[in-house]
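Re: folding output
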Amino acid sequence: MKSFTYTIFCLILLLGTARPSYATEYWTFINNMLPIKYVEDGKASGLAADILTEIMAKSGDSMPPEKTRALPWPEVYTKTLQTENSVILGMARTPEREAALKWVGPFYVTDQVIIAKRGSFDFANKANLPIIKVSTLRGTIMKDSLIKAGVPKENIVESTILEDAVDLVHSDEVDAVAYGTTPIFHVMQQKGIDTKEYEVAYTLRSRDLYFGFNKAIEDSVVEQYQTTLERMKEPDADGQSGYDRIVFKYFRPAI
């Protein structure tokens, strides 16, 4: 009897500590959008990576470095559509993309903006939008947003990476750059560009960011991840949530 009890005890310990046999290792294709998502030392990093890592931990799933790739946005989107067990860390959920992926979120809100050198244009006057030349990231929804705002298609210059789009406005080859506020200013800081010389000249719209999974993922897993995210946002006795603590690592709350 003693031997049987000991065997059961060992089995409980084993089951309690072993990684689930059904745990999934996801391919993660990332276009740098600091500090929301980027690759550092081969690992998925940033706000989105921290939130999704916390969500996946509940089921033993992960985004291992050996399955993490930094790529331009068009390749990120294409490879995720083609690769089972893959995820995009942060993207806008649009009607055109709705059926292509399965979604968890939103986990953050970002502004789509036009940033230009201070005083270069009176963007309050919409009549100036058709005459400006704007750089942005290729393959994103920014081009459509700019066109809807009144910027002619032929005045939009698309770059493969955000760094190149920022270089174009800094060198005066274009009048402005359009993308998310935080990523643009982060790139400028990394390049040693004085951000005080620039301003958010025009806000196109705000966008919720989601995690986009390859469609092969089971609906039950998506529902589990969504439930975990919603529970992460629930405040504890201190009035803060686990979600808040992750966000505040990257964005300090206003005082």
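--- second protein (sequence, then structure) ---
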Amino acid sequence: MLAHSQRWMRFSLLSIFPLLMIGSAPAADPAPKPNIVFILADDLGYGDIGCYGQKKIRTPHLDRLAAEGIRFTQCYAGSTVCAPSRCTLMTGLHTGHCRTRGNGGGGSPRANVPLTPDDPCVAKLLKKAGYATALIGKWGLGEAGSTGIPTRQGFDYFYGYLNQTHAHNYYPDFLWRNTEKVSLPNPQSEREGVAAKPVAYVPDLCREEALRWLGTKRSSSITLPRFRTPTTRKPASRKVGMKCLRMRRTLRRLGHNPRRTRPP
């Protein structure tokens, strides 16, 4: 979905989460560059929101965003899993040609194959067009120290997860800001990827970080592809896991089964 309004970019920041790309054009440009909001949800079916025919779950803000922008009806994800899907989006190449073709394979079981300096990336194109760029959320195209990290692929600023498996935990003990490892007050349990005491919720942190960055670019044109990871295989705590279970049961009582969702 695309929207050509800065106020809708701010709304999107408040309502959704993971991979967030922002570009700001210089004010001196004679022709203002368009504002863009691109929302990609990892685990969301075509018919799960109102603007595509959903009747059971209300999504009024997303529906309005679609109504005032562009609704894609013939668009497919580049792959079935995180890293290669993002790679196709960032590079414009399908998985027969793009660098990252699956989760893992980058030297350890969970490290991804990183992008190289020779790979195309939409952020590099934005830079050539005069945009300042930032990415906030989930990346998955290069581990720390590799050639694939966002700040080596055309982004001026990055905050979030470098690895998609790390992003399964909404209460991790660290995130990345550019090349700096930023500690978070979430002590981890013995179970990998699960916080013993959830304190700092990453979607909130990313929203605040995005708003802060956008606040420095208010007078500029902004380009904002945006991504959301709505579910996780590893709940941060048993309490959160039970909330997810109750929500699923409620949806079933309403007659909604995401696995059976089909386009209208």
